[in-house]
Specification:
Helix content is about 90%, strand content about 0%. By secondary structure, the chain is mainly alpha-helical. It is a multi-pass membrane protein.
Length: about 90
Amino acid sequence: MSPEVFLDVFQEALQLIVTMVAVIILPSLLVGLLVAVFQAATSINEQTLSFLPRLLITLTVIGLGGHWLVQQLMDFTLDMFARIPEVVG
């Protein structure tokens, strides 16, 4: 395997990982920020108030976007299988 091929595969894998994680985490971060601003404005320091909305948003995003996430992972895997002759030969 030449270094160029390895770097291409590594770059694609990292890009896929970052995209998949960002799709799941960014909505949770935005909701957490909104809840933190609400808690700061109202002086409510309840731990479950910040945890539960983030959990629900994360589960909702996984539920709604799960098909797309799995499809992206399957496309990447099939692409890697198709590259086996390029890597070996």
